[in-house]
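> example.struct
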């Protein structure tokens, strides 16, 4: 049996950076793989190709949906600063985070929040933080209102 960190290390040399970052994100979400687990795997396999690439990918920003891509494009179009994406903030994976502003944005889609478990988990995360949420409609259909709100929050 192979551990998830070892699978990531084995895949690192052959995957594109964005694909490796997505695989690392999924490993965190589904298997709770942490940076210390990755480092322990690397320590057990010194000299294995892909170690630097894996270290970078595990902490790299990644987008996981068309909604996230559309949100980043909306920000870029309106000259707003890009956030860090899908990163760990106080033990929670968040969609978008501007550390210097203390702002976290969650992008709500049925695909990722369409089960009771996902919905309850998201509600619990909201109680622990002060983030705001936008839907597909906020990003695409009501983008001007969304941009106006973000301009104030990022000022």
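> example.seq
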């Amino acid at each position: 049996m192979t551990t998830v960190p070892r699978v990531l290390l084995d895949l690192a040399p052959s995957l594109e950076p964005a694909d490796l970052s997505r695989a690392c994100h999924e490993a965190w979400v589904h298997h709770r793989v942490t940076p210390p687990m990755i480092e322990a795997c690397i320590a057990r396999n010194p000299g294995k190709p892909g170690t630097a690439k894996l270290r970078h990918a595990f902490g790299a920003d990644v987008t996981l949906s068309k909604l996230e891509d559309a949100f980043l494009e909306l920000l870029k179009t309106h000259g707003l600063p890009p956030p860090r994406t899908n990163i760990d903030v106080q033990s929670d994976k968040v969609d978008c985070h501007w550390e210097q502003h203390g702002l976290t944005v969650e992008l709500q889609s049925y695909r990722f929040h369409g089960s009771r478990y996902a919905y309850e988990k998201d509600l619990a995360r909201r109680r622990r933080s002060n983030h705001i949420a936008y839907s597909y409609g906020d990003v695409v259909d009501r983008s001007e209102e969304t941009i106006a709100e973000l301009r104030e929050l990022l000022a």
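> remarks
Residues 4-59 form one domain.
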